[in-house]
Amino acid sequence: MRGLLGFRPDGFTMALVGTVILATFLPCHGASARVFNVLAVIAIAALFFLQGARLSRQAVISGATAWRLHLLIMASTFVLFPIIGLVLRALVPGVLTPPLWLGVLFVCALPSTVQSSIAFTSIGMGNVPAAICAATASNLLGILITPVLVGLLLSLHGSGISLTEIWKIVLQLLVPFAAGQLLRPLIGEWAQRNRRILAMTDRSSILLVVYTAFSEAVVQGIWHQLPPTRFAVLIIINAVILGLVLLATTHGSRALGFSRRDEVAIVFCGSKKTLASGVPMANVLFAGPTVGMTVLPLMIFHQMQLMVCAWLARRYAARAEAARQSALSAVPSESPAPG
Description:
Elements (H helix, E strand, L loop, with lengths): L1 H4 L5 H15 L5 H24 L2 H5 L5 H25 L6 H12 L5 H9 L4 H29 L6 H20 L1 H10 L1 H25 L8 H28 L4 H11 L4 H11 L4 H41 L9
């Protein structure tokens, strides 16, 4: 029963599901849709501004000496994921519609998460400083790498991305992020003190973008294009991608001689994809009804990675504790001195 309780969806995921249901039955359209689109752009800019204000430069410097570990995580995030996505699309192209495959490839191009990667590494008793550095660097570099990678994947997908979309990424994401970093000396302490309030603001921004995107998709008939069987196939495709990456990061880190603590950081930082940055990026890159279908694979992958990695983190922690107890029991106890 305790194991089953560990697989409960988190509150934010339930809020995402509620937002999709709201957009399904009460979508915004017409003048209200234009208002929500403007609000979504403002919310995205605010989201990345606050991320820049909260990101400590020390977090980037901490653990940076473990370059082999970071290189492996980056290779998993920005090389292994896209290769797996492209191979699956080449093997079974007809199991998903082109917009859904676009969403799957978009997931594969995204950077890693920050908070959950660090949290799971900590729970699994892994290398937390290295996880902080790797997850932060992945998220930061992803603002630049992901649009280029998406453009490359779309060109292989038979589509493409223009310089206009990349420029929109710079204006709506990178410029606010850089502004937050520049103003960090003035507002950084305030942002750290109010992390919980700002986290609610971040999540509200994502929910707003999801509602706007799915409203447009519902108006265009998204649920008529997604029967239950195809939805189930989408879940399977996401599960296959996550499973392959977890296997590759686990056995790859062991084959390359990394310690157990480093392995934990590699597995959790190299197997995750960010929802917080992914939804705003999708809203910028895929304007129109495509956005709703594009973010659907990401929403599924987000919950799936949380559930699986929560289970893995507990297993890593149990193994670490068992190894510690075994080491303690192996140490001979001091016998009393003879009288």
